[in-house]
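Is this the right way to post C-alpha cells for a design question? Let me know if I should format differently. Anyway, here goes:
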C-alpha cells in the first residue's frame, strides 16, 4: 500500500495476471524512474524492507510503523508539486482499476450464459456478507 500511495501504481504490475504473479514470485519490483526521484531515501529503504522477498527477513507491521520514515514524515512538509504528482498517479491507478473491472464485467456478461450469470450472482450474494457489493 505504501508503494502505491507514494508512486500511484503497484509494485508488481503487468499486462495480465500471469505476468503480475511472475513478478510477485520473483520479487521483481523497481524504485527507479522519474516518480521515485522525488521520494526520500528513507521511504525507499522502508519499502525495500517491506517488500523483502523472504518472509523470514521481511519486517513486521510493528517494525514498519517504528521505522524512522514514519517518525520523520510527521515533521516534513510535502511540496505541492510532489502532492500533485502523487494524486495524479493515484488517479491513473484508480482509472486503470476501473477499466480492468469494466473489462472483466464485459467478459463475464458475454462469456457466460444467462443461467451461469444467475448462478454467479447468487454465489456473489452469498459471499458478500455485508451486502456492500464488494468482496
Amino acid at each position: 500500500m505504501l508503494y502505491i500511495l507514494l508512486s500511484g501504481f503497484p509494485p508488481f504490475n503487468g499486462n495480465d495476471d500471469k505476468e503480475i504473479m511472475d513478478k510477485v514470485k520473483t520479487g521483481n519490483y523497481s524504485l527507479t524512474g522519474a516518480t521515485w526521484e522525488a521520494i526520500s531515501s528513507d521511504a525507499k529503504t522502508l519499502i525495500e524492507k517491506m517488500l523483502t522477498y523472504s518472509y523470514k527477513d521481511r519486517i513486521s507491521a510493528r517494525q514498519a510503523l517504528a521505522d524512522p520514515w514514519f517518525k520523520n514524515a510527521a515533521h516534513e512538509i510535502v511540496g505541492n508539486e510532489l502532492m500533485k504528482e502523487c494524486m495524479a498517479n493515484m488517479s491513473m491507478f484508480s482509472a486503470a482499476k476501473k477499466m480492468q473491472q469494466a473489462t472483466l464485467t464485459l467478459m463475464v456478461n458475454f462469456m457466460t450464459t444467462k443461467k451461469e450469470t444467475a448462478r454467479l450472482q447468487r454465489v456473489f450474494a452469498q459471499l458478500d456478507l455485508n451486502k456492500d457489493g464488494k468482496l
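Format looks fine. Someone answered above. Worth noting: DSSP finds eight helices and no strands in the chain. The chain has a mean pLDDT of 78.
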